[in-house]
Write a structure and sequence with these properties.
heterotrimer, B: 265 residues, mainly alpha, two-stranded antiparallel ribbon, 10 helices, flat, C: 288 residues, alpha/beta, 2 domains, six-stranded mixed sheet, four-stranded antiparallel sheet, 11 helices, 10 strands, binds adenosine-5'-triphosphate, binds magnesium ion, cell membrane (chain B), membrane (chain B), transmembrane (chain B), transmembrane helix (chain B), ABC/ECF_trnsptr_transmembrane (chain B)
């Protein structure tokens, strides 16, 4: 059995007593080294969920466990060190006046000695391919570059889990690809769990598992393949399925028996090839 | 982008002045500013001017660039000079212009005061020309460090300064963006009676405040998520260290001070 | 209104160390009533281009003509207000421009500035709030008490209420969920046809450019890199890849199918359903 790293047990949350319930009895888990994508319509509670994962918010009911620790006032700093977070707006999370200073910020907060800091800054900037920009000021970087620095800043602290809350939303397609590439690379090099919150369906296909939120409830939990087998339902909650899945659905209805729900062009093609050669 | 012109006009360089510890630079400027007011003879002014010009020369920053930076204050310097000519009535009448008698004492005082003013501006702008804003912030934090004992929030102050520096370009871009959006909706910021133009500022200021607050909120959240919990127990990447060059310049400057006091009239 | 760019160059902060050539020798024509998509990587000059359409920027060289207003390098533009009344611009994240106490006042702001009569404004507010898919019960509420997607809609309504002849959209759907994106784009498309507007749409989505535009302009480093009908432009996969762009996924998929199975499917804006049917037919029949 895989080891769970983070767990929500019957978590409910509302911002104020008189405001609506944003998360309603949510129970989920994220395993070690797992990549989980979270999707859902605007306002479905995704960001709120992310903030509960590292103690930026506390549940009104239920419990949050991180690496075996129950989230509480005493251990939030320890938990924040284990769970790093990259936010949507690249501008509003850049604290330092230069790239180097920004990566240092988190390390300084955790009291890492200077010698160690210098090593880690170099290492993590290299991991995201920004080592040549050490002394650049933020307003001279593109959005995608800023987000890569944000990821480097999180990596430098050596967390066990990274949350990306729509970290690619404000980027152009190239910037998005860069970030996804960076995330993939990081996963190969280190033991980290990754949670990506996104509206981009093609990002979802890369994850090990998907959680779909709808109006503060977990609407679906499973692999991307399982998710995209159900077409109409996803559209009814304001989402959609990727083009390949749509295409496969159509072919199936036309009597071409595509067995395995394809997640990308290659898989679709391979499925069809098997069929084609037996026809 | 025009932003870099606003944050002091730091000119990157490799001169000894650039490499000095910002605390040493600030200390020297502090005393320079005081000592200038003690100068009252040709020799004492000369010593200070020599020191200032030598410093400028060492930085290798084109004088043209420095002169451009001083542009706004030329007016003040000239104004002070003329004011003295007109107001002071000491010594002999040298000549008269437009019915005003110009006294010899006035001329001397005018030159002295203007020179004083010029040196002050020159030496302080040398700091911003050769030091990044963040290094200045670090230096201020370090110099104010002793005040921590009396619970003065030194670290917070420095952090606030560096964050403001960080966000000036961002907010300037934002201002431009919003004013363009409102201009597209028919707001005219440039023409019309003053009252109308003042009214046109509301659609600019409200969104700007809203967005600044939102940014501050998100930034605070991001800082917290990255483990920021105040100055306690933090280590620092940027370390200030006084080196040989700093001691040498400090000693040199001490001689200048001594020279000024010895040559006072 | 017809739009013509004639040898337009734009330089930010000319004669300074920060000088930047954002547009170079740009010439093209947009006939009245067309829906044009402008695509290109970040920093390629798209936003600079569209700011010429309502005189927020005037060309450093060359001239821009919109209807009967001409912006020419070196001469002070006249009739700017008249131009802005006719050209509505929806900027990126337009919700950042909201400022009034109520939604109604914010939507009325543009028309009021352009001297539209009060009666007329009332009517336009009603029309536009419905057009953007919000209910008119909300008019008295503060625009700041809304969700991000709703704020976006109010801001868009504020531009539509000016009743522009030309609609300029700078990535109007960024950050919305898939349904929200589709709804907003469908709304613009509908308005474009109903009101016979000229629409210029800056987008990073090749899918949207293909689905809605009847003409595509591809920018690269301030130059016009390519232009043409979407189906023609998106044939040039290699050329597009070279400047950091892609072809729409459905075209990519069609090409790949043809290659792998030796088919001769041709993509000409059919729906996914139709394309799948064609593919299935060819695959089953074995007839190539
Ligand atoms: N600080 C806050 N105070 C009060 N209500 C809030 C606050 N932040 C969010 N909400 C509300 O909580 C609900 C869930 O918001 P949340 O930000 O978690 O949604 P989301 O799924 O991340 O949406 P999006 O896709 O737009 O980012 C929304 O109805 C929102 O209006
Ligand atoms: N106010 C300005 N001052 C100086 N340079 C600018 C200014 N605005 C934009 N630029 C520069 O002009 C170039 C074109 O910018 P523009 O905003 O038109 O690009 P874009 O294609 O809209 O990019 P994006 O997809 O990121 O929105 C960029 O290199 C940019 O840095
Ligand atoms: Mg969110
Ligand atoms: Mg742009």
């Amino acid at each position: 059995m895989e080891q769970s790293f983070l767990e929500f047990q019957n978590v409910s949350f509302q911002y104020r007593e008189d405001s609506p319930v944003v998360l309603d009895d949510v129970s989920i888990q994220v395993n070690q080294n797992e990549w989980v994508a979270v999707i859902g319509h605007n306002g479905s509670g995704k960001s709120t969920m992310a903030k509960l994962m590292n103690g930026l918010l506390f549940p009104n009911e239920g419990h949050v466990y991180v690496d075996g620790l129950k989230l509480s006032d005493e251990n939030i700093w320890e938990i924040r060190r284990k769970v790093g977070m990259v936010f949507q707006n690249p501008d509003n999370q850049f604290v330092g006046t230069t790239v180097k200073d920004d990566v240092a910020f988190g390390l300084e907060n955790h009291g890492i000695p200077r010698e160690e800091m210098i090593k880690r800054i170099a290492h993590s900037l290299k991991a995201v391919g920004m080592e040549e920009y050490e002394d650049h000021e933020p307003h001279r970087l593109s959005g995608g570059q800023k987000q890569r620095v944000a990821i480097a800043s999180v990596l430098a602290v050596a967390p066990s889990m990274i949350i990306l809350d729509e970290a690619t939303a404000m980027l152009d397609p190239k910037g998005r690809k860069e970030i996804m590439h960076t995330v993939n690379q990081v996963r190969q090099e280190r033991d980290v769990s990754v949670v990506t919150i996104t509206h981009d369906l093609n990002e979802v296909t890369l994850a090990d598992r998907v959680i779909v939120m709808n109006k503060g409830n977990v609407w679906f939990e499973g692999t991307p393949r399982e998710l995209f087998e159900q077409k109409g339902d996803l559209q009814s909650i304001g989402l959609d399925i990727p083009l390949v899945s749509k295409f496969a659905h159509e072919l199936k209805e036309l009597g071409l028996n595509v067995n395995k729900q394809p997640l990308n062009h290659e898989e679709l093609m391979d499925e069809l090839w098997t069929l084609h050669s037996t026809m | 982008m025009n932003s870099s012109m606003v944050i002091g006009q730091y000119v990157p360089g490799d001169s000894p002045v650039h490499h000095m510890d910002p605390r040493a630079k600030i200390t020297i400027i502090f005393f320079f500013v005081i000592v200038v007011f003690f100068a009252n003879s040709v020799a004492s002014y000369g010593a200070l001017a020599l020191f200032a010009l030598l410093s400028v020369g060492v930085t290798k920053i084109p004088p043209r660039f420095i002169a451009k930076g001083l542009k706004p204050v030329w007016f003040l310097i000239i104004f002070t000079f003329i004011l003295h000519l007109v107001v002071t009535k000491e010594g002999n009448v040298l000549f008269s212009v437009l019915g005003f008698d110009v006294y010899s004492g006035a001329l001397i005082q005018g030159v002295a005061i203007s020179l004083r003013f010029f040196l002050l501006i020159l030496i302080t702008s040398l700091l911003t020309l050769t030091t990044t804003p963040i290094a200045i912030t670090d230096a201020i934090e370090s110099i104010l460090h002793p005040l921590k004992r009396i619970k003065f929030p030194v670290h917070e102050l420095a952090l606030m300064m560096s964050i403001s520096l960080r966000f000036i370009p961002t907010l300037m871009q934002e201002t431009e963006k919003i004013s363009k959006a409102q201009a597209s909706r028919g707001v005219d910021f440039r023409t019309g009676p003053i009252k109308e133009r003042l009214k046109a500022i509301v659609p600019l200021l409200v969104p700007l405040f809203v967005s600044a607050f939102k940014r501050a909120e998100e930034l605070a959240m991001a800082m917290e998520a990255r483990g920021y919990q105040g100055g306690e127990g933090r280590t620092k990447l940027r370390e200030l260290a006084l080196r040989k060059i700093d001691y040498m310049v400090l000693v040199l400057f001490t001689f200048v001070i001594i020279a000024v006091f010895l040559t006072r009239a | 209104m017809d739009i013509t760019f004639d040898n337009v160059s734009y330089i930010y902060q000319p004669n300074s160390p920060f000088e930047h050539r954002a547009l170079e020798n740009l010439s093209f024509q947009i006939p009245s009533g067309s829906f044009v998509a402008v695509i290109g990587h970040t920093g390629s000059g798209k936003s600079t281009l569209i700011q010429h359409l309502n005189g927020l920027l005037a060309p450093t060289h060359g001239s821009v003509t919109i209807g009967d207003v001409m912006l020419q390098a070196g001469s002070k533009p006249k009739n700017l207000k008249a131009l802005r009344k006719q050209v509505g611009v929806v900027f990126q994240y337009p919700e950042h421009q909201l400022f009034e106490e109520t939604i109604e006042k914010d939507i009325s702001f543009g028309p009021l500035n352009f001297g539209v009569q009060e009666e007329e404004i009332k009517q336009r507010v009603q029309e536009t709030i419905e057009a953007v898919g919000l209910s008119s019960d909300m008019l008295e509420r503060s625009p700041f008490d809304l969700s991000g997607g709703q704020m976006r809609r109010v801001a868009i309504a504020g531009v539509l209420a000016m009743n522009p002849r030309v609609l300029v959209l700078d990535e109007p759907t960024a950050g919305l969920d898939p349904k929200g994106q589709r709804e907003i784009m469908d709304m613009f498309y509908k308005l474009h046809h109903e009101k016979n507007l000229t629409t210029v749409h800056v987008t990073h989505s090749m899918e949207d450019a293909l689905a809605y535009a009847d003409y595509v302009i591809v920018m690269h480093n301030g130059h016009m890199y390519m232009q043409g009908k979407p189906l023609e432009v998106f044939k040039e996969k290699e050329a597009l890849n070279k400047v950091g762009l892609d072809v729409p996924e459905i075209i990519e998929l069609t090409t790949k199918m043809n290659k792998r199975f030796g088919l001769s499917l041709e993509y000409k804006k059919q729906s996914v359903e139709e394309l799948a049917a064609e593919a299935a037919h060819k695959l089953k029949g074995g007839s190539v």
